[in-house]
Amino acid sequence: MYAKYYRIRYEELQDHVQNILPELDEGEEHFDLEDDSNAGNDDSSNPNDIGAGGLIGINTEESYAESELIIEEDDIRNDEQEEGATFEADFEDDFDSGEPPIPQRHDALIAKDQTAWLKNFPSQAVRVSSHNVFRGTVVGPTRATQGLIECDVFELIFTPSMLQQILVDTNEKARKAYEIWNEKNCTGDKRIWEKLTLIELRAFIGLVLLAGVNKSNDEDVDVLWGQECICFYRAVMPKSRFKEIVRFIRFDSERTRAVRLEANKAAPISELWTQMNANLRKYYQPSGEITADEQLFAYRGRTRFTQYIPSKPAKYGIKVWFACDAKSFYPLKSEIYTGKNSNAGRANNVGEGVVQRLVCHWENTGRTIICDNFFTSLNLGKYLMSKGLAILGTVRQNKTFVPYEMKADRNRAEESFIFGFLDGKFSLVSYVQKRGISVIILASTPLTNSIVAEKKNKPQYILDYDVNKGGVDAMDKMLSAYSTKRKTLRRPLAMFYNMLDISSLASFIIYSENNPYNRRTDVRRKFLRSLSKQLFMPAIEQRSQVPRVLGFHQTRKAIEIALDRSLSATSNVDSSIYLIFPTINNQNILYLVNTVK
Q1: DSSP states of 377-425 as a string?
Q2: What is the pTM of this model?
Q3: Which of 117, 305, 443, 585 is a good FRET partner for 366, with 20 to 30 A between their CA atoms?
């Protein structure tokens, strides 16, 4: 027969026996603990006391030696029915719903999964494990980045090969679109797509970066090319050309997209994203601490993997897993989260798999991986240790390897702490910040039980976590400060803007470490302005050599301001006169009339 059990702790048994002993000394009528046949004869007994057959086989002489007492509920129920006895007890913490009781040890804290965490710090000297020995010889930018200007550093991350891929896919898309339009409009004038060049694409990226650094990324294109705005937009390219590039820019081939979408929901941008990841980690060596966390890229368009995170400022967007340097906030590797696979079932241990993929390139380097409670687990710590890495992260209280004593309890005093040690390799510490709120940290860094009294008795593990936990959040804040993201319903284009932000931030960190700046707040703003000018100045120089462009007064004036020199509409053609006539469609036509000397 299935039986439920109540457990009485050693302290509760002591209190119960102390209440019974005075009655025994005074010779009053009492319950026979060894024989329950006479129980329940005293009508004056308190129904709230454990009696009337409520205790079975208890020896008062051995009660102090037992750590707990098990009461079988079926026997109690039978006695109540036969003799009218009542049993009332409220053991909220000690009620066990059919599970075997957790064995207790005086020297350890036992978790639900039987993990034993030693209470005392290992007395014998423990040798520093190999996963705690940092083997990084060079930290920061590699030698290939030294002596380069802003534009060259940026193109180490966003390479010319990536730009060439965009050129091919964009020209293919625009050509097909124009062919379809010409077939539907046979009677009208045919439209011909002017091929996008590398200079134009670089200039387009430069204008997008300039709009981001000037906080005008949300401005309409008509406003940017207006008379009251910065001259660079009009000097670089016509407004209509900018709109065409935004409309037709593509990042993959449409011919193979359908097949790739079956395996990867982010196929339209994933190939460029993979190349950017390879370049990010190629030109920068992280420090001893790497932070793993998520970025929520704000986007409310239609996707199959839009995420809702109420704690984030944007709340809705595309989740991107990131690993970045905890000191410099350099983005090392990222992964677009596209949700679970439709063919697979419910995914388990998602956080563990994400961290394993993000840090796989830094195995056997002795670095410490910092992560929050979504990722941290004992299995992840053991896996990282096998790969020569350490872990330091917060833990959710519902994890089975966390002992009951370390969970949140309103009876624990503020600024109190509990340590646990496992196999001389892992540490688990629980710290009470406020009453009823505890923070649990799992660490495989060198064992310590040190406490900093000046910091509200916080363990050193918590202080180390607080210093390094904000790597990805700080990187995300820097990305949003000068974001290039413009309003669009096309998800690949939105992610392309995010790629530009990531590449520009990475190039800034590399350039600033190779060329130390003074402690000024406008350093990154000056870097981005210089980078954008270096990208679009070749396009301005090219346009300054076209007489047809110089025939427009406002455009010529903008080019002169950008180049900081005066230009003449007839400087490239001798003895020529340029006349501008408006057509029926309000399109200006430049006529060249040769003069006779």
Answers
A1: -HHHHHHHHHTT-EEEEE--TT-TTS-GGGS--TTSPTT-EEEEEETTT
A2: 0.76
A3: 117
